Amino acid sequence: MTALRRRVRQLRVGGDARWLTDELSAEEPLEIRLDGVPLTVTMRTPGADFDLAAGFLVTEGIIGGADDIGAMRMCPHAADAGGDFNVLEVRLVGPGSPVVGQRNFFMTSSCGVCGKASIDAVRTRSRHDVRDDPLVVSPALLATLPDALREAQQVFARTGGLHAAALFDAGGTLLCVREDVGRHNAFDKVIGWAATQRRLPLRSHIILASGRASFELTQKALMAGIPLLAAVSAPSSLAVQLAEESGMTLVGFLRGERMNVYTGQQRVATAVATGGGTAAG
Fold it and tell me: Can you tell me which residues form the catalytic site (predicted)?
């Protein structure tokens, strides 16, 4: 269930009040177990949980793709001890890579990197080098992507409470959209979908974030071999640094016909280049 209904009292300045039904984005814990061992707990919006687990394992560097997964299943008796707690068991084909970093076993839907012992632990080198990716797109193509994402955000349209990630091919065709209360979960769900479809690495693809571009989202895109990360809002300084060091194109403030290209400018073809101003969203 991705949304829940609740009666709320709506107030207006001036004294007007009324009761109405509001829709809330669902948020529940999901524990991911790897070969019987608890790996992490994340607060997520239920749905596409297998994609979430596969994407998490890929972006943490634990597996390279779907061929490393022997089986995935929801544990049927995991909720007996109480409530809606969900447990997803992943069995690997063979021994996986050592778990990257010292991640706490509980993450809120917004914490992301803060679950690491140190930021150095998440400087994982991707199995895929995007420096030589030949992708080149036009500003006009990039400008169409946010509208395509918004049109596909069905739960956000009802609740206003979810982040989203969208995967596009080089021609701007929308391949996959996932929504979640956590932006990093949305990315993991998209990348996990690509992994289960055996599409990794995602050369000459674009991933779009509905909000800001953080260090962690940049890392996740790199782990999937995506050469271009675009975001509707601002990137962080560390996201820009990581993208620059890795040869990724990072685009921020992608709104209307304007955008800021922070790194990898060679992948965004434009006939006229001007400079000297101060970038602003």
Answer: 111
Q: Consult the annotation and say whether 33 binds a ligand.
A: no
Write the pLDDT tens digit of every residue in 18-39.
Answer: 777 667 778 889 999 999 999 9
Q: List pLDDT tens digits, range 170-221.
A: 999 999 999 999 999 999 999 999 999 999 999 999 999 999 999 999 999 9
What's the farthest any 2 CA atoms get from each other in the chain? Answer: 65
Are 190 and 209 within 8 A, CB to CB?
no
Length of the chain: 281
- For the chain, the domains span 28-122, 139-267
| 258 is annotated as contributing to ligand binding | yes
The pLDDT value recorded for residue 173 is 97
Cα 194–chain centre separation: 12
The CA distances from residue 265 to 164, 236, 258, in Å, are 25, 17, 14
What class, spelled out in words, does domain 139-267 have in CATH?
alpha beta
Q: Which residues are catalytic?
A: 111
**C-alpha distances out from residue 83 to 29, 48, 79, 206, Å:** 10, 20, 6, 38
- Nearest of 256, 209, 241, 211 to residue 228 by alpha carbon: 209
Ranges of beta strands (E only) in the chain are 3-11, 17-25, 28-34, 37-44, 69-74, 86-92, 163-168, 174-180, 206-209, 228-231, 249-255, 258-263
Pick the CATH number of 28-122 from 3.30.870.10, 3.40.710.10, 3.10.20.10, 3.30.300.70: 3.10.20.10
- DSSP 8-class letter at 197: T
Is 256 part of any known ligand binding site?
A: yes
